[in-house]
Amino acid sequence: TNGMARYAELILTEQTVNAAAMETELRDTYVEAMTVDNPPLIQSARFEDYSPEYWAATAAKGAAVYQMLRNVLGEDKFKDLIKGIPDKFANKSVSTDDIRKLASDLAGQDLGYFFLQWIESSGAPQFKLEYTVYRTGKGFRILGKIQQDLDTFRMPVDLKIETEGNPEFKRVEVSGPASEFVVETFGKPKKVEIDPNLRVLRMSPTTRVAVAIRRGEMFFEIGEYGEALKEFQKALEVNRNSSLAHYRVAEIFFLQNNYQSAANEFREVLNGDIEPKWTEVWSHINLGRIFDVTGQRERAVNEYNLAVRTRDNTQGAQEEAAKYMKDPYKRQRSSL
User: Fold this and answer.
1) What are the pLDDT digits (tens) for 169-187?
2) Disulfide-capable partner of 210 in 31, 129, 304, 330 (CB 3.0 to 4.6 Å)?
3) 3-state DSSP of 12-30
4) pLDDT per residue over 297-324, tens digit each?
5) CA-CA distance, 243 to 255, in Å (whole number)?
6) Residue 306 C-beta-side C-alpha neighbours within 13 Å
7) How far apart are CA 321 and CA 311, in angstroms?
8) pLDDT-derived band of residue 334, with 50, 70 and 90 as boundaries?
């Protein structure tokens, strides 16, 4: 129920805005889904009602499962599934097994493997792609292998082959730790990309950073600052240049009135990848606050000016900077 409700929001975005906007929200949904490794989705009742873990599993991962099922069934059969559930189970209870049977009937094959992987098991694969390109009499041949770390994994996975002409696409049935494939192309292949349209819930270095940050944010929201710091540090172990991870660490130090450590981290934000872009303007504002608190008004005004120069007004940043240029920031007492 929660998964379908979240997925309905994604479909609405796709239909009323565009597919790109839906993909952006879907990426965030996938990250949230992977913040919870255990227990499997079918055991979600073990989570405290309405906790962040409960919503991550039932809503986010539930929506991710519907998105992947859409890819397995294809557009027409997936629409039949979405229409068939209320038609068949109106005024009745419906179980995961009922949906599995209906989806299998539409697919013309037993999809038990899909539900076993995503409902009854935990974890997400991380793909590794290897390939070699050969010239043939009619064009080019790509011999490749997709490797991943889940022994029981089975899913169709799309490949996008960038060529000198139009890109070409190939669907590969990935089963077990290694699956080989062969692709023939007319144009010379320049790059092969796996799962280009985010059809599979999977780990990557970028996703691993995003998941660790989201876990840290979940701990931060409930006041578990020590656990939050551990997660942000995990993100930085994967990507030392993550401005968002440094920013979240700086926030905690700032709340604890540990101004020197906070300033160091806000500087690291500005030396990082500046993703997302708003981390730049708000780091300057927070550095200004720190300098105001420590009696360095000239340096504080300089930081507020740098914030204004970014022209980024995320969450009213420009108004905030202008306010402190006029009147110094006053220290906020904290019980942390």
Assistant:
1) 999 999 989 999 999 988 8
2) 31
3) HHHHHCCHHHHHHHHHHHH
4) 999 999 999 999 999 999 999 999 999 9
5) 18
6) 17
7) 11
8) low
